[in-house]
Amino acid sequence: MNDKQLLALFGLKWNPFLPNIPVEALWSPPGMDNFIFRIENLVMDGGFALICGEPGLGKSKNLQILSHRLGRLEDVVVGVMERPQSSLSDLYREMGHLFGVNLSPANRYGGFKALRERWQEHIKSTLFRPVLLVDEAQEMVTCCLNELRLLGSADFDSRCLLTVVLSGDLRLPERFRSSALVSLGSRMRLRMMLEPYSKDVLHNYMKHALQEAGAPHLMSQTLVETLVDHASGNLRLLNTMAADLLDAGAQKELTQLDEKLFLEIFSRNPATRGHSPY
């Protein structure tokens, strides 16, 4: 069964348990709206912000929501780094591409100067700092993280020319405790630390996901409670189990997914197909 057939069977606008849902339909976890509001104010002054948490808690999706919200602000320029593991030369290549500056990686000082001049011109004309979003920032090499700090600092560190939002797992704040990055860590003006979600929060997530997809009654309430109980507070695990059930329900041409299907798919019996969430 292809995707169109699956969606038609359950009356879905999209698969709510896959990553490629419309950004307008993404779920915002508790505290995210307040964090975005503070980032929108940070754009006026520049500086660093951090989104951090264990794998599977929605850091990348939160960054996607932030990118979408910032992109709607007039005169705010948002660049999204696609290769955080780059060397210093490749960092300058990507920064030049993101902010429309023709750079020669061989002339690092020229690139440093050209980027700062472009940012200063933008600030002068709009009063907003350009924004750089970096997902999987724990993969960045130390010299590149420090280069971002130096690139965005002006007038003896009294002005910021750039707003940088770093998103990464728990290795990232741990690195900020090292002597090489302690200066950068001390400059984090905003921090959003994600933790495993409570059952109530996951219930709200499932309700939001199903309603936005156009099928609020796709799953029985008992099944939702069962999925939440076995998700360990992790959105990725919750969505993986739900997606498996959706595929199995489509194969059986069910009209609603229930806990009976859950027991069948995730049985401890090794002869039963699927995997166990236990």
Structure description:
- This protein has a five-stranded parallel sheet, with helices on both faces. The protein has a two-stranded antiparallel ribbon with strand order 4-5.
- The longest helix has 19 residues.
- About 2% of the residues have low confidence.
- The protein is 47% helix and 12% strand.
- It is elongated.
- β4 and β5 form a beta hairpin.
- The protein folds into two domains: 85 residues, Helicase, Ruva Protein, domain 3 (Orthogonal Bundle), CATH 1.10.8; 163 residues, Rossmann fold.
- With 278 residues, it is of the alpha/beta class.
- It contains twelve helices and seven strands.
Relevant terms:
alpha/beta, 2 domains, Rossmann fold, 5-stranded parallel beta sheet, 7 strands
Describe how the helices and strands are arranged:
Layout: H1 3-10, H2 32-45, E1 47-53, H3 59-71, E2 78-81, H4 88-98, H5 108-126, E3 131-134, H6 142-151, E4 153-154, E5 159-160, E6 163-168, H7 171-175, H8 182-185, E7 188-194, H9 199-212, H10 221-230, H11 235-251, H12 259-265
Parallel strand pairs: 1-6, 1-7, 2-3, 3-6
Antiparallel strand pairs: 4-5
Helix pairs in contact: 4-5, 9-10
Distance between the termini: 28 Å
The CATH class of the largest domain is identified as Alpha Beta
> Low-confidence stretches at least 5 residues in length (pLDDT < 50)?
270-274
Radius of gyration: 22 Å
CATH architecture of the largest domain: 3-Layer(aba) Sandwich
Indicate how many domains the architecture comprises.
Answer: 2
Main sheet record: 5 strands, parallel
Order of helices and strands: HHEHEHHEHEEEHHEHHHH
- Please state how the strands of the largest beta sheet are arranged side by side: 2-3-6-1-7
Strand content: 5-15%
Helix content: 40-55%
Kindly report the name of the CATH homologous superfamily of the largest domain.
P-loop containing nucleotide triphosphate hydrolases
Task: State the shape.
Answer: elongated
Number of helices: 12
